[in-house]
Amino acid sequence: MVGQGENGVRLDGQGFALAARLAAACLSRDGLSATAGRGTLAAGEVAALAAHPAFRRPLGALLARERNWPGLSAGRMAVLFAAPEGRMAALVASEPRAVVEGAGRLLAAAVLHKRVLQVVLRADRERLRAVLGAEAFGIATQEAPTLHAGLAALERDPVVWRVVSGDDTAHAARRLADFGLELLARFAAGVDAALGHLACSRFAVEGDCVLDEAERAAVLKLLRRRVPSWPAIIG
Fold first, then answer.
1. What domain of life does the UniProt record list for this protein's source (predicted)?
2. Is the CB of residue 45 less than 8 Å from the CB of residue 37?
3. 129 shares a domain with 72
4. Same structural domain for residues 160 and 210?
5. Which partner for 3 in 11, 59, 79, 85 could form a disulfide, CB atoms 3.0-4.6 Å apart?
6. pLDDT, tens digit, for every residue of 97-145?
7. Cβ contacts of residue 177 below 8 Å, gap of 6+?
8. Is residue 118 located within the same domain as residue 175?
9. 71, 88, 101, 106, 222 from 144: Cα distances, Å
10. 198: containing domain
């Protein structure tokens, strides 16, 4: 089954599936609540309405009309979803937070791999392992130095490492997760502004400094290998 957008551009089956994911993300309680506080309704009011299924769809229509969000036509989605990075950007903007956050942790660890390798004391390395998680720590110490070395250039704020390497383990883990989400939102924004807006809104992060084509290719290379549910969709 296919759907036709402007100029005869069509969404194929996979495109419909990704479009449905984006629609669900926009109409989810988290997706709607993330847009609150900047227009007609306050955050608490949006959260209360979004929690009620009967109000979710009209609320989504109201917010979309106010902010033209996410602003993706069928034709535009067909073009985006024809490329692997467009499909990944759609996943970043629509997958459950736990999935995107998990992917972001792996990416953040790869970006910080040079910093991690400079830690030599066993106690400090074990604390970092606890903050990053076993898989992300393995990426930082074994995989990233040879396969993803270029990702280190995405560390543009030294404060991130100061927090991640600090004594407050819980705070460090939270900052690592937020850093990963920021990177993925910047990936999505580099592909399409509307997808980036949706990702930033859902995860309450900034995505103004978008990733360029080479940076996105490096991120795609890592996550295509490391997020089990994504390769079948990304291609």
1. Bacteria
2. no
3. no
4. yes
5. 11
6. 999 999 999 999 999 999 999 999 999 999 999 999 999 999 999 999 9
7. 101, 104, 105, 108
8. yes
9. 36, 20, 19, 10, 9
10. 98-226
